[in-house]
Write a structure and sequence with these properties.
alpha+beta, DUF1697 domain-containing protein, DUF1697, 8 strands, Alpha-Beta Plaits, four-stranded antiparallel sheet, globular
């Protein structure tokens, strides 16, 4: 059984696309997923599945969300190990010291390199970012709320689905994934 993290894009923001977490857990359990747990109200879920192909899980979950709630929700999935590797790969120092000033943007695939090359890092200083595989790491020393870079990174210009989580949420998701799958001791 594989352990996964599902990141739903754009739900429960400003009263739009409301997806209650209790209903999300029920929906996921109805799809046959086990050990389902959610974190916060922003569409973070961990679960186990026999399915080894994340693309199949994404299609199944997106279809069930549309059918149940009446609107489309894009989903990005990482395995538990991919999430742990993303945390380990963080190229920007200080995330643990100021987790609310750090975002990881999870992408459904490697971003469009031509679009990335159009992004001038100097135009967003003191904010900074690095792309590593299917994640974009960003630090916002003056806060995320008013940052132009935060808006750019979470947009659709990459040619892939993008959804961002702050560092605190990212690390708590890994803890939650590990908590629900601790191997029996004996």
């Amino acid at each position: 059984m594989a352990r996964y993290v599902a990141l739903l894009r754009g739900i429960n923001v400003g009263g739009n696309k409301k997806v209650p977490m209790a209903q999300l857990r029920e929906l996921m359990q109805g799809l046959g997923y086990t050990d389902v747990a959610t974190l916060l109200q922003s569409g973070n879920a961990v679960f186990s599945s026999k399915e080894k192909n994340p693309a199949k899980l994404i299609k199944q979950l997106e279809a069930a969300l549309a059918e149940t709630f009446g609107f489309e929700v894009a989903v990005v999935i990482r395995t538990r190990d991919e999430l742990a590797a993303a945390i380990e790969a963080n190229p920007l120092p200080g995330a643990e010291d100021a987790p609310s000033q750090f975002l990881v943007t999870f992408l459904s695939d490697v971003p469009d390199q031509k679009q990335l090359q159009k992004l001038d890092p100097a135009a967003y200083l003191p904010d900074e970012f690095r792309v590593v595989g299917r994640e974009i790491y960003a630090r916002f020393p003056q806060g995320i709320r008013d940052s132009k870079l935060a808006t750019v990174l979470s947009g659709t210009r990459w040619g892939v689905t993008a959804t961002a989580r702050n560092w605190s949420t990212v690390t708590k998701l890994l803890e939650l994934a590990d908590k629900h799958t601790a191997p029996p001791r004996g």
